[in-house]
Write a structure and sequence with these properties.
The chain is mostly helical. It is 68% helix and 0% strand. It contains 27 helices and no strands. Helix 3 packs antiparallel against helix 4 and helix 11 packs antiparallel against helix 12.
């Protein structure tokens, strides 16, 4: 390993040098040698963040923990995002206790704001169904000055309670926000409104709506229609059409501040005076969008909400009206439509969203939209088409898929015996600095061995070792068995044997 050290080393220089290393252990060695080579040099927070991120993303838990402890002993000022990365790494490795321990010891670090770490840990606990532990953590740390905002964590707790059918307790949590000096946001209302309506607690939901009028809807924000719609739909589904129409009038007047000309009485005669529930709901949705001075925000909010509920026909109607009125849909709207189509297994239509609809609307697809479609194609066992789609994506400037999308595509190509294509995707991952994990390497190597591509398999094995990733025994078994099947290939067999001895002695 030859490193061209600069005459004077700054933390920015060192961050750049260690980011260029494929092998995380090499990066760690450079990181450790820096202070001995430059006696006046000291690591700062961003350098520690870079090193911890590299070790965490490569699964080097022990080494990452040592660097975290070194950062604590150095007492250098660091940002909360460093601990977020470490907490997520522990959680991915199934070491939630280590993540909790790290958070509880943050007072020993030179970090003044723990908000991100706190919210991240609560979110992970909720996702892993450790609701009681999450509540205990919240109670222990919610009042400290280190946690500047508790709204997100309270929203997560309310969501978990609502998903368990305990919207009554979630309502108490919501009411506690005042005592916590927290102002509920639109997401707080959306979560609780949906929970109350799903539990058929419509009286409480109606009172929640009225509180929303004077707390967050005083200026008539168009995006609030997503929350209003939840209650109005629930009232219609429970046969309370007249009440829904009455509340709609209040929403238009007090919530959306709609002009008088938009606050006319709904004509229910077209829908058998309330017998056609779905028709009434569509009519109410139209009134919500048009009532509060139609805007890009109101149309987008309604369309995205409908797509998220897989109501594609109704959402398309909103999208078409949106364009007819001269509003240009954003990539977020098209991404929601592509995701809805993929859920319905309509991947061909999802591809057309990018290749036709977004082109007609003069809307540039983002990485997120491309990734949604690529994953949708993979889930429908159309990995070859997904591979071609990924290549189109890569031709766009600055449009690079994330590591998860690449990994999903490699997995699907391998499951469909497209090992050569998977090898090419793996190559592209490295070019784009999306370092594969051990499992991804293993699948490709085993697949290449099964089709007699021992040379390519050995090349990937070398790449794997160069990144300090120890291959599983199944990889060695596949490679040795594949090579030894060809008795004439003695030289290759010897090379594999030597590799095996070298690696096992590491």
């Amino acid at each position: 390993m030859i490193i061209r050290w600069p005459r004077l080393l700054s933390p920015t220089n060192l961050s750049q040098i260690i980011r260029m290393q494929k092998n995380p252990l090499t990066a760690l060695k450079i990181f450790s040698e820096a202070q001995s080579k430059y006696p006046n040099y000291r690591h700062n927070g961003p350098v520690y963040a870079t090193m911890i991120g590299i070790l965490g993303s490569s699964g080097r838990i022990t080494e990452m923990k040592e660097v975290v402890n070194q950062m604590k002993n150095d007492s250098c000022e660091c940002k909360d995002s460093v601990f977020v990365a470490a907490i997520k790494t522990y959680a991915r490795a199934g070491l939630l206790d280590e993540a909790v321990s790290l958070f509880k010891n943050l007072s020993q670090f030179n970090c003044v704001n723990w908000t991100q770490s706190f919210n991240t840990l609560v979110e992970i606990m909720v996702e892993e169904s450790k609701l009681e532990d999450a509540c205990r953590l919240f109670v222990e740390h919610c009042c400290g000055w280190e946690v500047s905002s508790r709204v997100r964590s309270l929203n997560l707790l309310m969501l978990a309670l609502c998903q368990k059918g305990r919207s009554d307790i979630a309502l108490h949590v919501f009411q506690e926000m005042d005592y916590q000096s927290c102002n509920p946001d639109r997401e707080s209302y959306r979560i609780l409104m949906r929970g109350l309506c799903e539990d058929r607690r419509l009286n409480e939901a109606t009172h929640l709506l009225y509180s929303m009028f004077w707390r967050i809807s005083q200026k008539g924000c168009a995006e609030d229609i997503v929350v209003y719609r939840i209650l109005l739909d629930a009232l219609c589904d429970n046969g309370k059409i007249e009440e829904a129409v009455e509340i709609l009038g209040k929403i238009l007047r007090k919530g959306l501040k709609a002009p008088k000309k938009f606050r006319h009485q709904l004509d229910l005669s077209r829908y058998n005076y309330g017998e056609d529930t779905e028709g009434i709901k569509r009519l109410i949705n139209e009134a919500l969008v048009r009532g509060g001075n139609p805007s890009l925000a109101s149309y987008s909010a309604m369309a995205i909400d409908l797509y998220n509920e897989n109501k594609i026909v109704e959402a398309d109607a909103v999208l078409n009206e949106m364009q007819d009125r001269g509003f240009r849909p954003t990539s977020v709207v098209y991404g929601a439509k592509a995701a809805a189509l993929c859920k319905e297994r309509k991947v061909v239509e999802a591809v057309e969203v990018i290749e036709k609809e977004m082109v007609r609307a003069n809307c540039v697809p983002t990485v997120k939209v491309f990734s949604i479609v690529v994953r949708g194609l993979c889930h429908e066992k159309q990995s070859v088409l997904a591979f071609e789609f990924l290549k189109k994506m890569e031709k766009r400037v600055g449009c690079v898929a994330d590591k998860e999308t690449y990994s999903v595509l490699v997995d699907e190509l391998c499951s469909e015996s497209g090992f050569l294509e998977a090898s090419r995707v793996l190559q592209e991952m490295l070019i784009k600095s999306r370092l594969p994990c051990a499992e991804t390497y293993s699948k490709v190597i085993r697949g290449l061995c099964s089709v007699g591509r021992q040379y390519d398999a050995v090349m990937w094995l070398e790449e794997m070792i160069s990144q300090a990733i120890l291959p599983e025994y199944t990889v060695w078994n596949s490679l040795v068995a594949s090579v030894c099947c060809n008795i004439a290939n003695i030289e290759a067999c010897s090379e594999v044997y030597n590799r095996l001895k070298t690696t096992t002695s590491m």
